[in-house]
Amino acid sequence: MLSRKNKLILLKFLSLFSIVRGYNILMITLAQYLASIYILAPSLPLRKIVFDFNLFVIVTSSALAIAGGYIINNFYDSEKDLINKPRKSMLDRLVSQRTKLSTYFVLNFLAAFLASYVSFRAVLFFSAYIFGIWFYSHKLKKVPFLGNFVSATLAIAPFFVVFVYYKNFATVIFVHAMFLFVLILAREMIKDLENIAGDMTQNYKTIPILYGVRFSKTCISILIVFTLIPSLLLINYFDIGYMYLYFIGSIGLLVLFIIQLWKSKSKIHYVWLHNILKLIIIAGVFSILLINIDLVLNRIL
Description:
Layout: H1 4-19, H2 22-40, H3 46-50, H4 53-76, H5 78-84, H6 86-92, H7 97-118, H8 120-138, H9 146-166, H10 171-194, H11 196-201, H12 207-211, H13 213-226, H14 228-237, H15 244-263, H16 267-287, H17 293-300
Helix pairs in contact: 2-4, 2-9, 4-7, 4-8, 4-9, 5-6, 7-8, 8-9, 9-10, 10-13, 10-14, 10-16, 13-15, 14-15, 15-16
């Protein structure tokens, strides 16, 4: 049996894991490696990518910076989250605000320090990325449209740094990025509908609060329709192997998403819609394997 002190330590560890959303970071790390293997550097041997120390440092720095971003975002949103996410908020409050800030600075320092191993440009990128996350959490988050756009941009930035590292400027990469960006932007706007109660209490000027729920649903619907452009381009004009099945499935889910969006009236409905988009994004990570099923096997053999 764990002692009371050990139980408290375990709870605080779980609280910190919840704050930094460790499961999201693990998924982003996996996505960076899969994108490197299948999309960004498909001609390189598997071993050269997996055991590339520079890539490992870039991915680790990304993970540390993202974890720091989640902490500072939680720091600024602690009051709002009491209303929007009461259960999660109670767990998160086991870690004091002072500890959160201390951890935030340590993680950011480690991210920049590790990046210095790769190059000075990597340090500049991660420094700008860390500042961008802070500025978004402190100021831009409360600005309608711009806040959503910046949030989506910050979400795909970790993939941008890997893309620059491999210097692969193929059109197919931009089309993939377009699909992911629009999907994440739609998810950010769904979160505004989901969090109306807390946003109103804390005087956040989000799109549904300023312009109404109907206008917000219209914007989200337009974004979902826009995802058809990169989806159809990837299916019809690029060699993406069996990944075309993922995009066909995504189109079907997104059609259902729009239908359900206009029927939704309560927070629980918006949470379900948010989870649908999250499912599509997560499925997209694993569907990268479908681009060339034999690729890894051939490299290993």
